[in-house]
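TICKET: design request
STATUS: open
ATTACHED STRUCTURE:
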């Protein structure tokens, strides 16, 4: 088993380059399954969710070539629908985009139910409602979702009950090759939705309105390959911004789109940090006392739920009592118990986390409870004087490209160690 060990208490200083966006790269990789031809995808992050996704596509017949460290050629010309590996699919959430892609291209799909971080119930009823509106007959049995249709998807008007990133993307992907026009209302507006629409349009799709809450998709007969660069990861960028403030450091974060970071920048400035904006970078500096604040997570352009645990870790270092109100996921609080182990005065009441700041955090053995909970304990450990060991770091590596090396380059005393896990010890005995 691998662990991350952090000797905290040192401010982060220097410059860090942000990788491509996980939540944009995932739908785009699966959307390649719509294309008979080769797509070259640039700025792909080196994270395990992407590795699994490539394995899933290879398993159904895609040819994938690494052209350089961040560039891949994806050729889905000869894929077989309804044949993806159940155990691979259930490892990640983004695998549900294969449903939209198979249904769009072949008029049928069969994919295992997705996995992903455990935040309580994560229904896919809006995806199903969308596929049915497009003329699919769906069933969920034996752990699989199956979609069938006579002649493939047919354009329709769909009004989502909730703003869902996954459902918006899945239906947009499926509708790209549908007969006629699809209109998605109450669509999610996250930058990764715009990115996926831009990718599909570069392949010959006719999608307009992505980034607003009404998206119009005029179905086309087929798509062709293209070369496309994925946008930078706003949550990776936000995590480094928060780490810079939490350690009272000064970090220039490059390869970002500052507009995507506005809700995060605004909160950090409210707390007393200084943020200098460049065309494709932000420089975050903080020192001394940081003010308390309150945060409510909301769909884009509101404060992202994927930055909630990191903000809680930061607020432990602020003066006074703050709260984070989680309005997207019913149970994204497992990291709270880990921060408590580090001495945080933090409690959950319903969907609100109350954080009483001002007492320095102290080292403790902790675990990454999920992807963002994991980076939150890393940030907490960077502020705590002494040695913190973090287990279950695979969850962090699902979404952070080279996190240890990037933190080291900013002066953090952090390393990865390998320790025998309980099973190995039992076998040795
Ligand atoms: N929802 C439904 N029904 C649905 C779909 C969603 O009720 O059919 C609800 C959810 O339960 C939730 C809300 O709608 O309360 C929003 O969920 P959404 O569908 O937007 O989330 P998701 O597609 O499951 C993606 C990201 C998450 C990110 C959320 C919100 C991927 C692979 N995952 O999840 O990313 O938190 O959007 O922005 O893109 C992460 O990167 O750490 C992560 C968890």
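STATUS: resolved
RESOLUTION: sequence designed for all positions
ATTACHED SEQUENCE:
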């Amino acid at each position: 088993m691998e662990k991350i060990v952090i000797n905290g208490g040192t401010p982060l200083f220097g410059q860090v380059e942000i990788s491509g966006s996980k939540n944009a790269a995932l739908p785009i990789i699966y959307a390649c399954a719509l294309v008979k031809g080769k797509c070259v995808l640039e700025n792909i992050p080196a994270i395990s969710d992407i590795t699994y996704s490539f394995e899933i596509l290879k398993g159904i017949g895609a040819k994938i070539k690494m052209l350089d460290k961040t560039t891949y050629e994806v050729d889905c010309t000869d894929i077989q629908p309804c044949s993806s590996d159940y155990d691979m699919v259930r490892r990640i959430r983004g695998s549900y985009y294969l449903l939209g892609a198979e249904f769009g291209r072949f008029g049928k799909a069969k994919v295992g139910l997705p996995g992903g971080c455990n935040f309580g119930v994560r229904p896919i009823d809006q995806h199903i409602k969308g596929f049915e509106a497009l003329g699919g007959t769906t069933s969920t049995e034996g752990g699989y979702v199956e979609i069938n249709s006579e002649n493939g998807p047919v354009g329709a008007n769909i009004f989502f009950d909730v703003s869902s990133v996954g459902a918006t993307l899945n239906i947009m992907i499926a509708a790209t090759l549908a007969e006629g026009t699809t209109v998605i209302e109450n669509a999610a507006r996250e930058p990764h939705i715009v990115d996926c629409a831009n990718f599909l349009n570069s392949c010959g799709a006719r999608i307009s309105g992505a980034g607003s809450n009404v998206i119009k998709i005029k179905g086309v007969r087929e798509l062709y390959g293209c070369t496309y660069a994925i946008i930078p990861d706003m949550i990776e960028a936000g995590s480094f911004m928060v780490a810079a403030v939490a350690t009272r450091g000064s970090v220039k974060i490059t390869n970002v789109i500052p507009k995507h970071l506005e809700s995060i920048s605004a909160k950090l400035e409210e707390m007393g940090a200084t943020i200098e904006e460049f065309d494709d970078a932000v420089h975050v500096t903080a020192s001394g006392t940081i003010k308390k604040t309150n945060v409510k997570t909301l769909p884009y352009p509101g404060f992202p739920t994927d930055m909630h645990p990191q903000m809680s870790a930061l607020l432990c270092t602020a003066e006074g009592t703050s709260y984070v109100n989680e309005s997207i996921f019913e149970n994204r609080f497992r990291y709270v118990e880990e921060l408590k182990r580090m001495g945080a005065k933090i409690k959950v009441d319903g969907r609100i986390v109350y954080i009483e700041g001002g007492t320095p955090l102290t080292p403790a053995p902790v675990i990454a409870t999920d992807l963002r909970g994991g980076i939150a304990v890393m940030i907490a450990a960077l502020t705590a004087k002494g040695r913190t060991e973090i287990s279950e770091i695979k969850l962090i590596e699902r979404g952070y490209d080279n996190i240890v090396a990037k933190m080291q380059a900013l002066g953090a005393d952090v390393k990865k160690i390998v320790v025998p896990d309980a099973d190995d010890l039992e076998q040795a005995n």
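CLOSING REMARK: Residues 234 and 260 are 6 Å apart (CA to CA). The two ends are 17 Å apart (CA to CA).
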